Amino acid sequence: MLSLKIHPHLVECGTDEAGRGCLAGPVTAAAVILPNDFSHPWLNDSKQLSEKKREELRPIIEAEAICFAVSHVMMDDIDQINILNASILAMHRAIEQLEQQPEFIAIDGNKFKPFGKTPYECVVKGDGKYLHIAAASILAKTYRDDFMEKLHEEFPHYHWNKNKGYPTVEHRLAIKKYGPTLYHRKSFKLLPEQLSFF
């Protein structure tokens, strides 16, 4: 069972990102502050849940959270500052947008940069340990998936409605055949060596 938060007596937000390993599209982060009495039997790391469960949980989280925010950092920024810095920037932007500023920040993963003077803690696999990080992981994932579904309408050859920009064989073959789009991350290795000889 997931814990509510690290410091029960503080206003604490959880934050997580989605899309770090993708070849196309933004990296997306969410920040969530949950009420102290929040619980839900399904809530877990978004990667452990089906797409249907994530979609059902999203409006529940949005309705019951004290506040939440989501932020995309786009491909050009990712290419300029690298994916780790872009992920942290997306988290910072999401936290900035919260209607109530947190007294403590819980981050999924092991890397973060100070957000003003707010104390924080990085938690490896935090989305499987704390409810607010799990909630942030679901919002980040579902908002990013929605974004990629829209991009799919513009560039259907890449099957972003299915792979969401991740490096599947189908996605790589489409890049090989049609070349990269303006939504691809130019700083990423879009084709592995073995595909460049087809």
Write the layout of secondary structure elements.
Elements: E1 12-18, E2 27-33, H1 51-64, E3 67-73, H2 75-81, H3 83-97, E4 104-108, E5 120-123, H4 131-154, H5 160-163, H6 169-178
Helix pairs in contact: 1-4, 2-3
Gross morphology is globular
Specify the biggest β-sheet.
5 strands, mixed
Give the neighbour order of strands across the main sheet. Answer: 3-2-1-4-5
Look at the structure and give the mean pLDDT. Answer: 94
Order of helices and strands: EEHEHHEEHHH
Considering the protein shown, what is the CATH homologous superfamily? Ribonuclease H-like superfamily/Ribonuclease H
Question: Care to give the gist of this entry?
Answer:
The protein is an alpha/beta fold. Helix content is 37%, strand content 15%.
Question: Could you characterize what this model shows?
Answer:
This protein has helices spanning 51-64, 75-81, 83-97, 131-154, 160-163, 169-178, and strands at 12-18, 27-33, 67-73, 104-108, 120-123. It has one domain: Ribonuclease H-like superfamily/Ribonuclease H (Nucleotidyltransferase, domain 5, 2-Layer Sandwich), CATH 3.30.420. The protein has 198 residues and is an alpha/beta fold. β1 (12-18) and β2 (27-33) form a beta hairpin. 37% of the residues lie in helices and 15% in strands. A five-stranded mixed β-sheet has the order 3-2-1-4-5, with helices on both faces. The radius of gyration is 17 Å and the shape is globular. The chain is built from six helices and five strands; from the N terminus they run ββαβααββααα. The model has no long low-confidence stretch (mean pLDDT 94).
